[in-house]
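In response to a reviewer's request, we include the raw inputs and outputs for one of the modeled complexes. The two entities were modeled together in a single run.
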Amino acid sequence: MISSLVLLPQFEKKGIVARLDPRTKMFCSLCVLGMITRFSDLKFLLIITIGVIGAGCLIGAGPLLARAKWFVLVVIAFSTVTWAVQIGGAMLPHFGFRLIPKEAWMFSAAMGLRFGSLLLSGLLFLSITTATDLQDALTSLRFPHAMVFTFSLSLRLLPAYVDTAVGILESQRARGLDLRMGSLRTRARNCLSLAVPLFMHAVRQTHLLAIGLESRAFSPVEARSCYRTLRLRLADYLVIVLFFVAALGVCWATSRGVGVVSSPSL
Amino acid sequence: MRCVFGMWSNVRMVVLVALSGAMYAAAILVLRTPPPLSTQWIGQLLPMPLSLLFGPAAAWGMALGAILAGIALGDYSGLISGPIGCFIAGALPFLLWSRLWPVSWGRQVRLNSLRAWFLFTLLAVVSAMGGSLVIAWLMDVLRLVPFRFLALLIGLGNIVSGTVSLALLLVVYRRVEAFGLVWWEIMDEQDLDHPRSVLSVAGAWLAVVVCVSSWTFAIALPHHARFIAGGGVIGIVLSLALMW
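The model returned the following structure tokens for the whole complex.
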């Protein structure tokens, strides 16, 4: 499951949404994030979740969302049960040892759905944004160069380390390693047999990389120029205004109590 | 704390941030369960050794790793609380290691005495509690996961992993030192802080007291958990400011 999701599933830039400026996509994602966290009513969160899934299907991210469905469902179910137990536990002094009431279940389901819709909208963002897009957006938003460089370097190192980690895990399993068996001490020792090779591999790579950068007189503090400069177009401005107005509307509505339910334990 | 910001002018430290971030994210991603059940046993073996080896680069690296893992999984919730909590979990060990007078004695990590083992275990507990307190509080404020559940899950898991990671540090410390990649050897002298000033020592002990007490009381008193944990987060920020 995770290997299928890891590392920015990069779609070909065919659709109009995929061709939007990465800063626009980031802004829209933040607006959606804000809207999701403002609502706590099950009905409203259900509408948002359906909207996110619909938008995903429209822009061609359906296969990705379909692949992630079990992952998201487990998250929703687990979050719901966790909240129900938490609220049920808090309500016991008032309700004795009766079962968790319906209101608590409704609130818990809303919280679970909130978590699930956050995941879905995150996946949607990934399906229309590449690693280079993210890097360019951060640069044009005037983030410090050293931080953007570190971010992009990590994004490029990550697949290599994931591959190395998976390789080490599989080779240790082939030698008979089982992380789910044995006492706590045995499991801890087994974990070390994965962590130590990964660690030393990474340190060796870093040492060479640092020597390479220093020999090319790389400086993290010097000002740099960019090959590719991002420009917002009319479509970007329209989308930004649309999402900004929607986010403001949601803030206004939730401040008046629309779509907001307080926790039954409070 | 000065070194946390001063390190960005050093090429090797910048590369170490990327290394720490990518390695932490890779370890999280390879053996990770879905977000509410964020048990990252392998991943949590790394913060303590990385922090004591790479110092401020590890603190930024932990935050970066949490962001990368969140991005790779599309987990927005992890992007909100994860980086801040992981930054705290990565910053506390190296900051406290040289500041907890009279238990500590300097920046160098020598795990050849009972006192050093005690200090390491104490730091594993404090950083696990501090990190989980921040993550669980933020997730609870956003109403994504209840505080008590997440604080217990992350806190206890990180305490166990952090303590076990002593073995990892014992194995790799000498080798990394041989590469010349230990943080205070890489950084310029003017960017290093003064761990033995009165304020630094006071801030370090304040961090220990705040992390342990607020985590314990917030779990023991679920009705006031959000309030206590919020106070704990403010206490951690204050202690970091004192350690400047």
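As requested, we also summarize the result in words. Chain A touches chain B through 79 residues (CB under 8 Å). Chain A has a mean pLDDT of 79.
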